[in-house]
Amino acid sequence: MNVGFISLGCSKNLIDTEATIGLFKKNNFKIVNEESKADILVINTCGFIETAKEEAINTILEMSEYKKKKCKYLIVMGCLVQRYYEELIKLIPEVDLFIKIDEYDILWKKIEDLIKRDIVEKSKNKDTNKILKIEPMPLLKQEEFINRVITTGKNYAYLKIGEGCSNKCTYCAIPYIRGPFVSRKKEDIIEEAKKLADEGIKEIILIAQDTTKYGIDIYGECKLVDLIEEISKIKKIKWIRFLYSYPEGITEELIDVVKNNKKVAKYFDIPIQHISDKVLKRMNRKTNKHEIQELIKKIRNKIPNVTLRTSLIVGFPGETNEDFEELTKFVEVAKFDKLGTFMYSKEEGTPAEKLPGHVHGNTKKSRYKKIMSIQQQISRNNLENKINKIYEVLVEDITFDGKFYVGRTMQDVPEIDGLVYIKNTDKEKDNVVNSFVKCRIVEISNYDLIAEFI
Q1: What is the value of pTM for the model shown?
Q2: Which domains does the chain have, with CATH numbers?
Q3: What integer pLDDT is reported at residue 137 of this predicted model?
Protein backbone atom coordinates (compact mmCIF):
# COMPACT_ATOMS: atom_id res chain seq x y z
CA MET A 1 0.00 0.00 0.00
CA ASN A 2 1.01 3.64 -0.52
CA VAL A 3 1.68 5.72 2.61
CA GLY A 4 1.61 9.51 2.85
CA PHE A 5 2.88 11.61 5.77
CA ILE A 6 2.12 15.06 7.16
CA SER A 7 4.46 16.32 9.90
CA LEU A 8 3.34 19.32 11.95
CA GLY A 9 5.20 21.29 14.61
CA CYS A 10 8.86 21.37 15.51
CA SER A 11 11.98 19.66 14.20
CA LYS A 12 11.88 17.22 17.13
CA ASN A 13 8.51 16.06 15.85
CA LEU A 14 9.98 15.78 12.35
CA ILE A 15 12.54 13.25 13.57
CA ASP A 16 9.72 11.06 14.93
CA THR A 17 8.02 11.32 11.52
CA GLU A 18 11.24 10.38 9.71
CA ALA A 19 11.64 7.35 11.98
CA THR A 20 8.06 6.27 11.22
CA ILE A 21 8.67 6.65 7.48
CA GLY A 22 11.70 4.40 7.95
CA LEU A 23 9.54 1.75 9.65
CA PHE A 24 7.08 1.72 6.74
CA LYS A 25 9.91 1.52 4.18
CA LYS A 26 11.55 -1.31 6.09
CA ASN A 27 8.27 -3.23 5.85
CA ASN A 28 8.03 -2.68 2.06
CA PHE A 29 5.42 0.06 1.93
CA LYS A 30 5.70 2.72 -0.78
CA ILE A 31 6.03 6.34 0.40
CA VAL A 32 4.10 8.94 -1.64
CA ASN A 33 4.09 12.74 -1.47
CA GLU A 34 0.48 13.33 -2.54
CA GLU A 35 -2.39 12.70 -0.14
CA SER A 36 -4.66 11.72 -3.04
CA LYS A 37 -2.41 8.74 -3.85
CA ALA A 38 -2.17 7.39 -0.28
CA ASP A 39 -3.86 4.24 0.96
CA ILE A 40 -2.61 5.11 4.47
CA LEU A 41 -2.25 8.67 5.77
CA VAL A 42 -0.14 9.37 8.87
CA ILE A 43 -0.35 12.77 10.59
CA ASN A 44 2.19 13.67 13.30
CA THR A 45 0.61 16.44 15.35
CA CYS A 46 1.73 19.33 17.52
CA GLY A 47 -0.20 20.37 20.64
CA PHE A 48 2.06 23.04 22.08
CA ILE A 49 -0.08 26.17 21.75
CA GLU A 50 -3.62 26.99 20.66
CA THR A 51 -2.76 27.82 17.04
CA ALA A 52 -0.83 24.55 16.70
CA LYS A 53 -3.78 22.58 18.07
CA GLU A 54 -6.15 24.30 15.65
CA GLU A 55 -3.83 23.51 12.72
CA ALA A 56 -3.63 19.87 13.78
CA ILE A 57 -7.41 19.46 14.13
CA ASN A 58 -8.04 21.17 10.79
CA THR A 59 -5.45 18.95 9.09
CA ILE A 60 -7.00 15.79 10.54
CA LEU A 61 -10.47 16.87 9.41
CA GLU A 62 -9.18 17.76 5.95
CA MET A 63 -7.39 14.42 5.57
CA SER A 64 -10.47 12.53 6.78
CA GLU A 65 -12.11 13.68 3.54
CA TYR A 66 -9.67 11.47 1.63
CA LYS A 67 -11.06 8.46 3.49
CA LYS A 68 -14.26 8.97 1.56
CA LYS A 69 -12.31 8.62 -1.70
CA LYS A 70 -9.27 6.33 -1.66
CA CYS A 71 -7.48 6.39 1.68
CA LYS A 72 -8.12 3.21 3.68
CA TYR A 73 -6.51 4.10 7.01
CA LEU A 74 -6.01 7.43 8.77
CA ILE A 75 -3.40 7.34 11.58
CA VAL A 76 -2.74 10.26 13.93
CA MET A 77 0.19 10.41 16.36
CA GLY A 78 2.19 12.96 18.35
CA CYS A 79 1.75 15.66 20.98
CA LEU A 80 -1.93 16.45 20.38
CA VAL A 81 -2.80 12.77 20.75
CA GLN A 82 -0.75 12.42 23.95
CA ARG A 83 -2.55 15.38 25.43
CA TYR A 84 -6.14 14.85 24.24
CA TYR A 85 -6.34 11.12 23.53
CA GLU A 86 -9.81 10.49 24.99
CA GLU A 87 -11.32 13.66 23.54
CA LEU A 88 -9.96 12.96 20.04
CA ILE A 89 -11.38 9.43 19.97
CA LYS A 90 -14.84 10.87 20.61
CA LEU A 91 -14.40 13.98 18.46
CA ILE A 92 -13.00 12.43 15.26
CA PRO A 93 -14.25 8.85 14.77
CA GLU A 94 -12.95 8.93 11.17
CA VAL A 95 -9.43 8.31 12.51
CA ASP A 96 -8.59 4.61 12.55
CA LEU A 97 -5.71 4.78 15.01
CA PHE A 98 -4.45 7.34 17.52
CA ILE A 99 -0.91 6.71 18.80
CA LYS A 100 0.28 8.48 21.95
CA ILE A 101 3.92 9.35 22.54
CA ASP A 102 4.09 6.95 25.49
CA GLU A 103 3.20 4.19 23.01
CA TYR A 104 6.08 4.84 20.62
CA ASP A 105 7.88 1.75 21.90
CA ILE A 106 5.02 -0.33 20.43
CA LEU A 107 4.28 2.04 17.54
CA TRP A 108 4.81 -0.49 14.76
CA LYS A 109 2.85 -3.20 16.58
CA LYS A 110 -0.16 -0.88 16.80
CA ILE A 111 0.14 -0.04 13.09
CA GLU A 112 0.44 -3.74 12.21
CA ASP A 113 -2.60 -4.56 14.32
CA LEU A 114 -4.57 -1.89 12.50
CA ILE A 115 -3.57 -3.03 9.03
CA LYS A 116 -4.36 -6.63 9.94
CA ARG A 117 -7.78 -5.37 11.15
CA ASP A 118 -6.91 -6.67 14.62
CA ILE A 119 -7.52 -3.30 16.26
CA VAL A 120 -6.99 -3.24 20.00
CA GLU A 121 -10.22 -2.47 21.88
CA LYS A 122 -10.20 1.01 23.31
CA SER A 123 -10.47 1.14 27.09
CA LYS A 124 -13.50 2.96 28.50
CA ASN A 125 -11.88 3.69 31.83
CA LYS A 126 -8.93 5.90 30.92
CA ASP A 127 -7.72 8.65 33.20
CA THR A 128 -8.86 11.81 31.43
CA ASN A 129 -6.52 13.87 33.61
CA LYS A 130 -3.42 12.00 32.49
CA ILE A 131 -1.89 15.30 31.37
CA LEU A 132 -1.13 15.99 35.02
CA LYS A 133 1.08 12.88 35.34
CA ILE A 134 4.72 13.43 34.42
CA GLU A 135 6.35 10.10 33.61
CA PRO A 136 9.32 9.34 31.32
CA MET A 137 8.30 8.65 27.73
CA PRO A 138 9.93 5.74 25.90
CA LEU A 139 12.57 6.90 23.42
CA LEU A 140 12.42 5.53 19.92
CA LYS A 141 14.64 2.48 19.56
CA GLN A 142 18.16 3.07 18.24
CA GLU A 143 17.30 1.06 15.12
CA GLU A 144 14.42 3.45 14.41
CA PHE A 145 16.65 6.53 14.74
CA ILE A 146 19.27 4.91 12.50
CA ASN A 147 16.80 3.85 9.80
CA ARG A 148 14.73 7.04 9.68
CA VAL A 149 14.23 8.62 6.28
CA ILE A 150 15.71 12.14 6.13
CA THR A 151 13.18 14.60 4.68
CA THR A 152 15.22 17.81 4.98
CA GLY A 153 17.27 17.37 1.79
CA LYS A 154 20.85 16.38 1.07
CA ASN A 155 22.73 18.85 3.22
CA TYR A 156 21.48 18.93 6.79
CA ALA A 157 19.67 16.72 9.28
CA TYR A 158 18.33 17.17 12.79
CA LEU A 159 19.76 14.82 15.42
CA LYS A 160 17.66 14.39 18.55
CA ILE A 161 19.83 13.99 21.66
CA GLY A 162 17.05 13.85 24.25
CA GLU A 163 13.31 13.72 24.76
CA GLY A 164 10.98 15.59 27.11
CA CYS A 165 11.72 18.43 29.53
CA SER A 166 12.20 18.75 33.29
CA ASN A 167 12.28 22.55 33.56
CA LYS A 168 8.57 22.91 34.42
CA CYS A 169 8.08 26.49 33.22
CA THR A 170 4.59 27.43 34.36
CA TYR A 171 3.31 28.29 30.86
CA CYS A 172 4.52 25.13 29.10
CA ALA A 173 2.68 21.84 28.52
CA ILE A 174 5.69 19.98 27.09
CA PRO A 175 6.58 18.14 30.36
CA TYR A 176 2.98 16.89 30.58
CA ILE A 177 2.99 15.80 26.93
CA ARG A 178 6.50 14.38 26.52
CA GLY A 179 7.50 13.71 30.12
CA PRO A 180 10.74 14.65 31.93
CA PHE A 181 14.05 14.99 30.11
CA VAL A 182 15.56 11.68 28.98
CA SER A 183 18.98 11.64 27.24
CA ARG A 184 20.02 9.24 24.51
CA LYS A 185 23.27 7.36 25.00
CA LYS A 186 26.28 9.18 23.57
CA GLU A 187 27.44 6.16 21.56
CA ASP A 188 23.99 5.86 19.93
CA ILE A 189 24.04 9.52 18.89
CA ILE A 190 27.59 9.19 17.48
CA GLU A 191 26.54 6.09 15.54
CA GLU A 192 23.62 7.99 14.00
CA ALA A 193 25.83 11.01 13.19
CA LYS A 194 28.32 8.77 11.37
CA LYS A 195 25.55 7.17 9.34
CA LEU A 196 24.18 10.60 8.39
CA ALA A 197 27.68 11.68 7.33
CA ASP A 198 28.07 8.56 5.19
CA GLU A 199 24.77 9.46 3.49
CA GLY A 200 26.21 12.84 2.48
CA ILE A 201 24.80 15.06 5.26
CA LYS A 202 27.12 18.04 5.77
CA GLU A 203 25.44 19.78 8.70
CA ILE A 204 24.27 18.20 11.97
CA ILE A 205 21.76 20.13 14.08
CA LEU A 206 21.55 18.83 17.65
CA ILE A 207 18.12 19.31 19.19
CA ALA A 208 16.27 18.61 22.43
CA GLN A 209 13.80 20.62 24.45
CA ASP A 210 16.85 21.92 26.37
CA THR A 211 20.16 20.75 24.90
CA THR A 212 22.12 22.01 27.93
CA LYS A 213 20.50 19.25 30.03
CA TYR A 214 22.01 16.54 27.83
CA GLY A 215 23.55 13.72 29.85
CA ILE A 216 22.60 14.90 33.33
CA ASP A 217 20.07 12.09 33.82
CA ILE A 218 22.36 9.23 32.71
CA TYR A 219 25.90 10.55 33.32
CA GLY A 220 25.30 12.80 36.33
CA GLU A 221 26.55 15.91 34.52
CA CYS A 222 26.03 17.76 31.25
CA LYS A 223 27.86 16.04 28.41
CA LEU A 224 26.90 18.37 25.56
CA VAL A 225 30.47 19.63 25.07
CA ASP A 226 31.86 16.08 24.97
CA LEU A 227 29.17 15.11 22.45
CA ILE A 228 29.95 18.10 20.21
CA GLU A 229 33.68 17.33 20.30
CA GLU A 230 33.06 13.68 19.38
CA ILE A 231 30.81 14.58 16.44
CA SER A 232 33.35 17.13 15.22
CA LYS A 233 35.83 14.25 14.75
CA ILE A 234 33.62 12.82 11.97
CA LYS A 235 35.51 14.02 8.89
CA LYS A 236 32.55 14.29 6.52
CA ILE A 237 30.63 16.58 8.87
CA LYS A 238 31.37 20.21 7.98
CA TRP A 239 29.02 22.18 10.26
CA ILE A 240 27.59 21.45 13.73
CA ARG A 241 25.06 23.51 15.64
CA PHE A 242 22.89 22.99 18.73
CA LEU A 243 19.53 24.68 19.38
CA TYR A 244 17.39 25.47 22.44
CA SER A 245 20.13 26.09 25.03
CA TYR A 246 18.63 27.52 28.22
CA PRO A 247 20.66 30.38 29.73
CA GLU A 248 21.33 28.70 33.09
CA GLY A 249 22.94 25.74 31.29
CA ILE A 250 25.42 27.72 29.18
CA THR A 251 28.82 27.17 30.81
CA GLU A 252 32.29 28.58 30.16
CA GLU A 253 33.17 25.20 28.66
CA LEU A 254 30.27 25.37 26.19
CA ILE A 255 31.16 28.94 25.17
CA ASP A 256 34.76 27.84 24.62
CA VAL A 257 33.84 24.92 22.34
CA VAL A 258 31.72 27.28 20.23
CA LYS A 259 34.62 29.73 20.07
CA ASN A 260 37.42 27.27 19.35
CA ASN A 261 35.93 24.39 17.35
CA LYS A 262 35.94 25.39 13.68
CA LYS A 263 33.06 23.06 12.84
CA VAL A 264 30.71 24.53 15.44
CA ALA A 265 28.53 27.45 14.35
CA LYS A 266 29.25 30.64 16.28
CA TYR A 267 25.58 30.71 17.18
CA PHE A 268 23.62 30.55 20.44
CA ASP A 269 19.86 29.98 20.48
CA ILE A 270 18.92 31.11 24.01
CA PRO A 271 15.20 31.25 24.88
CA ILE A 272 15.06 33.82 27.69
CA GLN A 273 11.25 34.49 27.42
CA HIS A 274 11.36 37.77 29.40
CA ILE A 275 13.68 40.11 31.30
CA SER A 276 11.51 41.36 34.19
CA ASP A 277 12.48 39.46 37.34
CA LYS A 278 8.85 39.46 38.50
CA VAL A 279 7.66 37.85 35.27
CA LEU A 280 10.56 35.40 35.16
CA LYS A 281 9.72 34.26 38.68
CA ARG A 282 6.05 33.66 37.78
CA MET A 283 7.23 31.71 34.72
CA ASN A 284 9.39 29.54 37.04
CA ARG A 285 12.45 30.37 34.97
CA LYS A 286 15.82 29.57 36.53
CA THR A 287 17.60 32.86 35.68
CA ASN A 288 17.12 36.54 36.44
CA LYS A 289 17.76 39.79 34.60
CA HIS A 290 21.30 40.31 35.88
CA GLU A 291 22.37 36.76 35.01
CA ILE A 292 20.93 37.03 31.49
CA GLN A 293 22.64 40.37 30.86
CA GLU A 294 25.97 39.04 32.17
CA LEU A 295 25.68 35.90 30.02
CA ILE A 296 25.10 37.94 26.85
CA LYS A 297 28.05 40.19 27.71
CA LYS A 298 30.30 37.18 28.38
CA ILE A 299 29.41 35.41 25.12
CA ARG A 300 29.96 38.54 23.02
CA ASN A 301 33.25 39.34 24.74
CA LYS A 302 34.58 35.84 24.09
CA ILE A 303 33.13 35.46 20.57
CA PRO A 304 32.88 38.90 18.90
CA ASN A 305 31.36 37.49 15.69
CA VAL A 306 28.73 35.40 17.50
CA THR A 307 25.09 35.28 16.38
CA LEU A 308 22.57 35.42 19.22
CA ARG A 309 18.97 34.30 18.85
CA THR A 310 16.25 34.40 21.49
CA SER A 311 12.52 33.98 21.96
CA LEU A 312 10.19 36.08 24.12
CA ILE A 313 6.67 35.79 25.50
CA VAL A 314 4.51 38.92 25.81
CA GLY A 315 1.25 39.15 27.71
CA PHE A 316 2.12 36.58 30.38
CA PRO A 317 -0.36 36.69 33.31
CA GLY A 318 0.45 39.64 35.54
CA GLU A 319 2.72 41.36 33.00
CA THR A 320 2.29 45.07 33.77
CA ASN A 321 3.00 48.04 31.55
CA GLU A 322 6.18 48.55 33.58
CA ASP A 323 7.26 44.93 32.97
CA PHE A 324 6.68 45.32 29.26
CA GLU A 325 8.51 48.65 29.13
CA GLU A 326 11.45 46.95 30.83
CA LEU A 327 11.37 44.27 28.12
CA THR A 328 11.29 46.76 25.23
CA LYS A 329 14.28 48.68 26.62
CA PHE A 330 16.18 45.42 26.99
CA VAL A 331 15.46 44.42 23.37
CA GLU A 332 16.67 47.85 22.19
CA VAL A 333 19.92 47.51 24.14
CA ALA A 334 20.63 43.78 23.66
CA LYS A 335 20.27 43.97 19.86
CA PHE A 336 19.79 40.26 19.25
CA ASP A 337 20.68 39.13 15.74
CA LYS A 338 17.53 36.98 15.61
CA LEU A 339 14.45 37.29 17.80
CA GLY A 340 11.07 35.58 17.84
CA THR A 341 8.12 36.74 19.94
CA PHE A 342 5.04 34.81 21.02
CA MET A 343 1.83 36.04 22.59
CA TYR A 344 1.11 34.08 25.75
CA SER A 345 -1.26 31.18 25.12
CA LYS A 346 -3.25 29.77 28.04
CA GLU A 347 -2.68 26.01 28.05
CA GLU A 348 -4.89 23.56 29.94
CA GLY A 349 -3.29 21.83 32.88
CA THR A 350 -0.37 24.26 33.23
CA PRO A 351 0.17 26.28 36.44
CA ALA A 352 0.04 29.58 34.51
CA GLU A 353 -3.56 28.83 33.51
CA LYS A 354 -4.60 29.51 37.11
CA LEU A 355 -2.47 32.62 37.66
CA PRO A 356 -4.31 35.91 38.24
CA GLY A 357 -4.01 38.91 35.94
CA HIS A 358 -4.48 37.41 32.48
CA VAL A 359 -3.74 40.07 29.85
CA HIS A 360 -6.39 41.08 27.31
CA GLY A 361 -5.88 39.76 23.78
CA ASN A 362 -5.69 43.22 22.20
CA THR A 363 -3.00 44.25 24.69
CA LYS A 364 -1.00 41.14 23.85
CA LYS A 365 -1.25 41.95 20.13
CA SER A 366 -0.10 45.55 20.56
CA ARG A 367 2.84 44.44 22.72
CA TYR A 368 3.78 41.80 20.17
CA LYS A 369 3.72 44.36 17.34
CA LYS A 370 5.86 46.82 19.30
CA ILE A 371 8.58 44.25 20.07
CA MET A 372 8.67 43.05 16.47
CA SER A 373 8.80 46.61 15.17
CA ILE A 374 11.84 47.33 17.35
CA GLN A 375 13.50 44.09 16.28
CA GLN A 376 12.83 44.71 12.60
CA GLN A 377 15.04 47.79 12.62
CA ILE A 378 17.71 46.01 14.69
CA SER A 379 17.72 43.11 12.21
CA ARG A 380 18.07 45.48 9.28
CA ASN A 381 21.02 47.25 10.91
CA ASN A 382 22.66 43.88 11.64
CA LEU A 383 22.26 42.85 7.99
CA GLU A 384 23.65 46.15 6.72
CA ASN A 385 26.76 45.55 8.83
CA LYS A 386 27.43 42.42 6.74
CA ILE A 387 27.75 44.31 3.44
CA ASN A 388 31.24 43.86 1.89
CA LYS A 389 32.06 41.01 4.27
CA ILE A 390 33.06 37.58 2.95
CA TYR A 391 31.23 34.41 4.00
CA GLU A 392 31.32 30.73 3.25
CA VAL A 393 27.88 29.72 2.00
CA LEU A 394 26.30 26.29 1.70
CA VAL A 395 24.37 26.47 -1.60
CA GLU A 396 21.13 24.49 -1.45
CA ASP A 397 19.07 25.59 -4.45
CA ILE A 398 18.85 27.77 -7.54
CA THR A 399 15.96 30.11 -8.37
CA PHE A 400 13.52 29.06 -11.07
CA ASP A 401 14.83 31.68 -13.50
CA GLY A 402 18.45 30.66 -12.83
CA LYS A 403 19.48 34.19 -11.82
CA PHE A 404 20.44 33.35 -8.24
CA TYR A 405 21.87 30.47 -6.27
CA VAL A 406 20.24 30.20 -2.82
CA GLY A 407 22.12 29.20 0.31
CA ARG A 408 22.93 29.86 3.96
CA THR A 409 25.91 30.98 5.98
CA MET A 410 27.01 29.04 9.03
CA GLN A 411 25.16 31.66 11.07
CA ASP A 412 21.73 30.81 9.66
CA VAL A 413 19.51 27.96 10.84
CA PRO A 414 17.61 26.36 7.93
CA GLU A 415 13.97 27.41 7.52
CA ILE A 416 14.24 29.79 10.50
CA ASP A 417 16.83 32.41 9.63
CA GLY A 418 17.57 34.33 6.43
CA LEU A 419 19.00 33.20 3.08
CA VAL A 420 21.84 34.30 0.85
CA TYR A 421 21.00 34.92 -2.82
CA ILE A 422 24.18 34.69 -4.90
CA LYS A 423 24.09 36.36 -8.32
CA ASN A 424 24.58 33.78 -11.06
CA THR A 425 26.36 36.14 -13.46
CA ASP A 426 28.68 33.49 -14.88
CA LYS A 427 26.28 31.21 -16.76
CA GLU A 428 29.13 28.89 -17.74
CA LYS A 429 29.97 28.24 -14.10
CA ASP A 430 29.54 24.66 -12.91
CA ASN A 431 26.39 24.05 -10.88
CA VAL A 432 27.35 24.64 -7.23
CA VAL A 433 24.15 23.39 -5.57
CA ASN A 434 24.94 21.22 -2.51
CA SER A 435 28.48 22.62 -2.19
CA PHE A 436 30.28 25.33 -0.22
CA VAL A 437 31.35 28.58 -1.91
CA LYS A 438 32.97 31.85 -0.86
CA CYS A 439 31.07 35.03 -1.65
CA ARG A 440 30.93 38.72 -0.77
CA ILE A 441 27.74 40.38 0.50
CA VAL A 442 26.82 43.32 -1.76
CA GLU A 443 23.32 44.34 -0.61
CA ILE A 444 20.36 43.30 1.57
CA SER A 445 16.69 42.54 0.95
CA ASN A 446 14.32 42.40 3.93
CA TYR A 447 15.74 39.55 6.03
CA ASP A 448 18.01 38.12 3.32
CA LEU A 449 21.43 38.89 1.85
CA ILE A 450 22.45 39.41 -1.80
CA ALA A 451 25.97 38.27 -2.68
CA GLU A 452 28.46 37.78 -5.50
CA PHE A 453 30.89 34.92 -6.02
CA ILE A 454 34.51 35.68 -5.25
Answers
A1: 0.80
A2: 2-132 (3.40.50.12160), 167-384 (3.80.30.20), 390-453 (2.40.50.140)
A3: 63
